[in-house]
Amino acid sequence: MQTHPELDALSPIMNILGVVFFAVFACIQSIDALDFRGLHSLVQRRLPQHAKDFTFEALPEKGDKYIVGDTVGKRGAVTISCTSISACSRGLYVYLTDFGGVDIWWTGSRLHELPSNLPPVGKPVTGDAVVEIRYHFNTVTFGYTTAFWTFEKWSLLLDWLALRGVNLPLAWIGYEHILSEVFHDTGLSDTEIASFLAGPNFLPWNRFGNIQGSWGGNLPTQWVEDQFVLGKQIIQRMVELGMTPVLPSFTGFVPRALATHYPNASIVTGGQWSGFESNLTDVSFLEPFDPLFAELQKSFILKQQAAYGNVSHVYTLDQYNENDPFSGDISYLRNVSSNTFSSLRAADPEAVWLMQGWLFFSSSTFWTNDRVEAYLGGVEGNDTMIVLDLYSEAQPQWNRTNSYFGKQWVWCELHDYGGNMGMEGNLEELTNGPITALQAPGSSMKGVGLTMEGQEGNEIVYDILLDQAWSSTPLKVSDYVAQWVSRRYPVQPLPAAAQKSWQILSTTVYNNKDPNSQATIKSILELSPALTGLVNRTGHHPTLIPYTTNTTILPALKLLLQASDVSSTLRNVPEYRYDIVDITRQLLANSFVDLYRHLITVYNNSTSSHEHIMSTGSNLVRLLGDLDRLLYTNENFLLSTWIADARQWAGNGPRANTSYAAYLEYNARNQLTLWGPNGEINDYATKQWAGLVGEYYSQRWKLFVDYLAGIKQSGQPYDATYISRQLLAIGQTWQVQKWRGTKGQSWGTKGDTFDVVEEVLRAWA
Ligand SMILES: *[C@@H]1O[C@H](CO)[C@@H](O)[C@H](O)[C@H]1NC(C)=O
Ligand SMILES: *[C@@H]1O[C@H](CO)[C@@H](O)[C@H](O)[C@H]1NC(C)=O
Ligand SMILES: *[C@@H]1O[C@H](CO)[C@@H](O)[C@H](O)[C@H]1NC(C)=O
Ligand SMILES: *[C@@H]1O[C@H](CO)[C@@H](O)[C@H](O)[C@H]1NC(C)=O
Ligand SMILES: *[C@@H]1O[C@H](CO)[C@@H](O)[C@H](O)[C@H]1NC(C)=O
Ligand SMILES: *[C@@H]1O[C@H](CO)[C@@H](O)[C@H](O)[C@H]1NC(C)=O
Ligand SMILES: *[C@@H]1O[C@H](CO)[C@@H](O)[C@H](O)[C@H]1NC(C)=O
Ligand SMILES: *[C@@H]1O[C@H](CO)[C@@H](O)[C@H](O)[C@H]1NC(C)=O
Ligand SMILES: *[C@@H]1O[C@H](CO)[C@@H](O)[C@H](O)[C@H]1NC(C)=O
Ligand SMILES: *[C@@H]1O[C@H](CO)[C@@H](O)[C@H](O)[C@H]1NC(C)=O
Ligand SMILES: *[C@@H]1O[C@H](CO)[C@@H](O)[C@H](O)[C@H]1NC(C)=O
Q: Coiled coil located at which positions (predicted)?
């Protein structure tokens, strides 16, 4: 084991002085071999009973390699040797999963369930990463999933990442503190800066230059300061766990008032985004060839280094995400990227520029190959950039851009829009795709990564890609799934029905070859009701269900339930309970589509009466009530968690700041529903959460059914404008509603999952 007694003595001081810690840490990493203290802390955190049983040792080679074996001369102990912290972490994961039969999930860590007598390894097991980079996060995950998290939730996810071998996570938290300081130095006032920053869970789009300002009130300074404290903790933990955080930089997006302070600065408008009114979008962009750009970049990066230490040279920087450049001239694009990169290098001589490649897909008409080549080509060298090929599993762009003209790029899985929850995946593509891309002639692919917009469910499709990073041949999906299931439900012996259930899912729902319905399937129950246009949507927000529910979801659910009839201890496994709720949720969501179709057929029929529509429509509302009851039985499906997480930043109990809490709650609710003050991106980040389904979606559908029945009676024509205004008004009211106390709903779970599932099957299957 590597120890550094001289540093251990310092550690209390280092915990206080994060800056000192990082300076020393970085130094140790380079002159000495590897500092394993972060991994020992992870073991202590997750497997305290085995704190002394794991030894880590450095191997002198390069790359990411590990060897896992029994500790010589010590029974029930394991030694992991490696060439990097990340490889040792991965080696530990291989031991815990393959030998220990336990795992760490988004739903919680079960690593402490490792047998008390550690299973022996026998012949040592080795592994190598087949790619240098294992990346995690989309800029918008910080809005859709982690926006309101405290360090406790972060700690679980960071351990999840480290153990799976991620070594390059994005780290946006705390950005606004440093950015505001940079702006202050230019003479901008607090008010001018505040009018630029977006709401807490909308900051990603402010960082992208899509929006500015916060509806419902300015972003409080307290938020900015609290996030800065959190950001330091997160970055410190990432570094300890052998990950290189990808840090923010100065992008060029500035408060409008900068033009007043610098009348000669080259400032252009980023463009109108997603129907927002001008004062919330049309963000000012300081052009990178203006000397002020380089000045602000240097100021930003030096302040950031002072805050976090010299922990990374990789910078995230997106200028044209869903915003086309001011000019499409080849020379302009080359000029912009060339000057942007020079500004980074002037501030950090080893800077590497990382960018999300979404624009090359979403604005592919603008981004012709010669424009892509000019923009990337403005940056000299190939190791100077990392492009995230953001949606490789369905809409790869590397293959039309000559492997990004030689720049390093990462094969990324997008999969999820807005944290939507429909079950979907293409396991075959997630195993074959990256290997094919790696082996393509002239490939400059350097990594794989997860760039989901939100993390909600479907955990298997994320696991498999990070595991594929350690296998030079495509993983065999059926074997993979079997092993995954047996550690997800660590019950001995695991009833065969559980495996059969997942065999069905993995060969159908998770074997989606339809290019038009890739990414989580959105359920129409979450959409604003309408006569047409809801079902069978394809493309960006598919509602087309690319499998037959009766032969997939339904038998899979029945088999999974059967498994716990055989082995009742399964019902105590949190991931089993989660999956039962999730699959039942999907069954109900899909059944809703049939009910909706029936309703419209009845409505379209001129002989149908008011009563017929009411009775047909009542089924839709009844189903939503049952879905809400189901979701209420599990802590992972609660709207109240999202809201409580938001409100906690305003303090808890009698010391809470109620106006701040209300602001946070409004932002939290707004994103799920209207996404913008007036429904600009209505129903994008929908969720099937208890409270949201029962209070909001079901209210909208009830209004719709009543309306259809009403006009049948009155003989008035269907008025699409009228009904959508009424539905929007429900949204506007729901935004500002206080959760606590309304309709007697509690904040926690209620009801028993298995009772509700039984009723659901009786009523709807
Ligand atoms: C509550 O929070 C708001 C927004 O941060 C702030 O303006 C106000 O001063 C706070 N009130 C108290 C009593 O701290
Ligand atoms: C801006 O440019 C004008 C014309 O070139 C010049 O007269 C003026 O001094 C400049 N202002 C600043 C603040 O640099
Ligand atoms: C934006 O402008 C509109 C009027 O065009 C105004 O009603 C609204 O309050 C403004 N919003 C913000 C955030 O300033
Ligand atoms: C940061 O670390 C690099 C080596 O990784 C070194 O070249 C550089 O001088 C350091 N910068 C500072 C500000 O310490
Ligand atoms: C970029 O454009 C600016 C403004 O037109 C010009 O002054 C500058 O020389 C150009 N720089 C490069 C590297 O082409
Ligand atoms: C790139 O690959 C995707 C997915 O296989 C395919 O649909 C697309 O046509 C390919 N593009 C080119 C230019 O080959
Ligand atoms: C970058 O990659 C391209 C394409 O493989 C190659 O033509 C070019 O020479 C490389 N540039 C450098 C500086 O290595
Ligand atoms: C949607 O697709 C399903 C199956 O492909 C088909 O049966 C149904 O008629 C379609 N519905 C509409 C409204 O297009
Ligand atoms: C699915 O099964 C149910 C009950 O067995 C049946 O009512 C329904 O028509 C089936 N749906 C399809 C699309 O086959
Ligand atoms: C109902 O009528 C509308 C409008 O005429 C039509 O577009 C739609 O396809 C019909 N739907 C069904 C399910 O009959
Ligand atoms: C309309 O409803 C009537 C009564 O239920 C039924 O007999 C008829 O077949 C329906 N017409 C159509 C076109 O579905």
A: none
pLDDT at 20: 35
Say whether both 141 and 277 belong to one domain: yes
Q: What range defines the domain where residue 45 resides? A: 34-128
Q: How confident is the model at residue 9 (pLDDT cuts 50, 70, 90)?
A: very low
Domain-terminating residue out of 107, 128, 149 = 128
How far apart are the CA of 236 and the centre of ligand 1, in A?
Answer: 29
Residue 112 shares a structural domain with residue 255: no
Ligand 4 site, residue 310, Cβ cutoff 6 A: yes
CA-CA-CA-CA torsion sign (540, 543, 548, 549) = positive
Shared domain check, 195 and 167: yes
Model confidence pLDDT, tens digit, residues 461-488: 999 999 999 999 999 999 999 999 999 9
- To test the pocket of ligand 6, the residue of 393, 399, 436, 443 to mutate (highest count of ligand atoms within 8 Å of its CB) is 399
Co-location of 146 and 103 in the same domain: no
Q: What are the residues whose beta carbons fall under 8 Å from the beta carbon of 2, sequence distance 6 or more? A: 32, 33, 34, 35, 36, 56, 57, 58
User: Is there an atom of ligand 8 within 6 Å of 548 CB?
Assistant: no
Domain stop point among 112, 128, 144: 128
Each residue's pLDDT tens digit, 436-451: 999 999 999 999 999 9
Ligand 4 atom 10, closest CA: 310
The band of 539, judged by pLDDT with boundaries at 50, 70 and 90, is confident
Total domains in the chain come to: 3
If pLDDT is split at 50, 70 and 90, which confidence band does 747 have? confident
* Ligand 7 lining (C-beta closer than 6 Å): 381-382, 405-406, 442
Name the residue of 191, 211, 277 to mutate for ligand 3: max ligand atoms within 8 A of Cβ: 277
* Rounded Cα gap, residues 184 and 306, in angstroms: 17
Q: CATH number for the domain including 580?
A: 1.20.120.670
In the predicted model, what is the mean pLDDT of residues 130-149? 98
Structural domain includes residue 303: yes
Q: pTM of this prediction?
A: 0.94
Q: What is the pLDDT of residue 336?
A: 98
Beta pairing partners, 67: 81, 126
Do 322 and 199 lie in a common domain?
Answer: yes
Are 445 and 562 in the same domain?
no
Please tell me the distance from the alpha carbon of residue 56 to that of residue 82, in angstroms, as a whole number. 8
Mean pLDDT of the residues in the chain: 94
